[in-house]
What does this fold into?
Amino acid sequence: MTELKSTSIEILDTTLRDGAQGEGIVFSVQDKLAVVRALDELGVAWIEAGNPGSNPKDAEFFAAAASLSLGTARLCAFGPTRKSGVTAKNDAQLRSLLDSDAAALSVFGKCWDFHVKEVLRVSPEENLAMIVETIAFLKDEGRIVLFDAEHFFDGVKANSEYALSCVQAALGAGADRIVLCDTNGGAFPDEVSAGVSLAAGALAEITAPDGKPALIGIHAHNDAGFAAAAAAAAVRAGCRHVQGTLVGFGERCGNTSLAVLIPSLELKLGCRCLPRGRLSRISEITRLVAEVANVPLPAATPYVGSSAFSHKGGMHSDGVLKTSRSFEHVDPALVGNDRHLLMSEVGGRSAIAARVQKLDPAVTRDHPVVEKLALKLKTLEAEGWSFEGADASFELLIRRELGRYKPRFKILAYRVMSEHPTGESISCSHAWAKLRVDERDEIAAAEGEGPVHALDGALRRALCRFYPELQQVRLTDYKVRVIDGGAATAAKVRVLIESTNGPAAWTTVGVSEDIIDASRAALVDSIEYRLIADSNLGI
It folds into this structure.
């Protein structure tokens, strides 16, 4: 597919506006500034950063953003057309848009006659006047104006003549972008493609005040699971402006995930969405934005998720090691991601050998260490261990077999206690640990919101005297799974712990009939792995 090769696509990220409308998403002003910096590093053209007329926080953000020095991106403020019965110059929402000092202003207007009558409760003529007068007023103020044609595709289905008259009116009033919105997220990609073509034909009949042809955009929601596909179809139909959120979260089921769409447009269609060389940072920056938003990035997110280039089956692992094209549609390095050969009983020796070679390139598939690891893996998995999601623990296992593992500390004793005072809702956990590092003993205690939190605190407090870099390490996820439900409360449990020090993240595993002991094993592996990674010794 080369018909769009070298075509420039303008990207607008609305993480801080539409994304902030997603359930559980809350950004502070500082969070918003951090996301703006990250998106600017990625190289998007526009950042729709909020609705200053809807809440004081967004107004405060735009005031703070004035001091930002951005390299690529420009800020955009969002709001509605003027209210019915109010002149544009006297509309408070429009005044707040102008006061934001954003380089561009997005205004949304109804294009579905059902919404005009039943939601706005104005006449079709008044709705058109609201669109025209709003855009003309903002253009007279010297601003770039984007018109979000809300419910455009539903409007075309219900009354195409009226929906098209709305976008024609917006262009005639001077809008710089006409953004077609699948606001309810239910349109199929072929319906979006047809709607874009219809809009393009109607807009070609209108002469804009600046004499330039309309720049048409797409804003899709994911309620039917089609957002990225619909946006790609829109681009192929003529859209040259695309809106979405990097991670994909947003109102209801979310927006077009730009982390999914941008690589597809660049690598599959040959479009240019980001400055040259920036695509390789999309995995890193997507994870950063997810971290700021305090949401997990789904492992199965195409291109950027941790499972996007993960291979578990022995045939798949063997094939991808021989030629990556056999089971990968693109090179993971192009999007800044990594290939993962998951370690399991079905993984095969080729996958194990590839993992060992990262530490010792001389090891081949038939090396005795690979045979030992294959047998140990089957034995441990039969006992309830699972390493496919615990790369750090498996690396430590490899190091032990290679004789390249030197424990950085030893737990001599530990104790965990939890108190639940009768009649009180407050509970408290305490942990005590005695450790030895290089023949020196250290004792520490900590209080936590639960026994694992307390134990983590005690271990970290004791070890930070010797390894201050551990102050940057924290747990980001904790999962427990019962392995044998038939054993009831005596069953083995598997604990997975994900940790981070900011730039890196890693996962470790522990298994035991005692949930605290399983957690202890995973915690120790987490700390050991980080200390080895930070060490110049490599052992």
Remarks:
- The mean pLDDT is 91.
- The first helix runs from residue 29 to 42.
- The chain has three domains: 10-293, 310-382, 410-534.
